[in-house]
Structures are given as structure tokens and as C-alpha cells.
Amino acid sequence: MEVKEMSLVIECPREYVHYNFLVKRGFSDGEPTMFFAEVKPNCKGEGDVYHCTPLEETDSGHCFACNHGAKDLMHPNAGGYLGGHKEKGSFHMELVLDSDDDVCYL
């Protein structure tokens, strides 16, 4: 798994982290699959994952928060994620993944 984009979405009093990550399945030489996930900021495991789905190349779902700063972060057209739907009160905060950071294992 390789994290490509991530964004902290703040909609007081709730917070979410939106991720795009690449997954290469098994040992095949096939193309990796891009995923979207929405998790709790202090994600420790599966119970902290709100939404996780593979993305299609045509996906361009809307997120008010990510559109302010994480414009390359893809969202599924079908929705299903909780954060980023409010035009007012949605904020984005850039997150930087350090190799020493704890990562939510989806």
C-alpha cells in the first residue's frame, strides 16, 4: 500500500481523514488499484474506518473541504463518505505522512 494523498476534513464537531492510496493485489504484475478511504483521525483499526472503496479513473466526487487544499484527492462519484458535504463549515488541513508516523492499517 502506498498513500498518495490525504487530507484532514474538519466539520465541527466532527473530523475525518480522507485518503487516496494505491494497492497492488497479490504478486501479480497487474496495475495497482487506487482507493478512497475516510477514517477517524486517530484511526487504530477497522472499527475506525467509515468508508473504503476502490476508485475508477472517472471518479470525481465532490468534497468542499478537499477542494480547498487537496485538489488532487479523488472521491467516489457514488458518495458514501460522511465529511466534506457542507459548503459552510468544512475546512481542510494538509497532513504530511512521515515514515515514522503511525498509519491506520485498512
UniProtKB/TrEMBL annotation:
Residues 5-76 form the DUF3615 domain. InterPro entries: DUF3615. This is DUF3615 domain-containing protein.
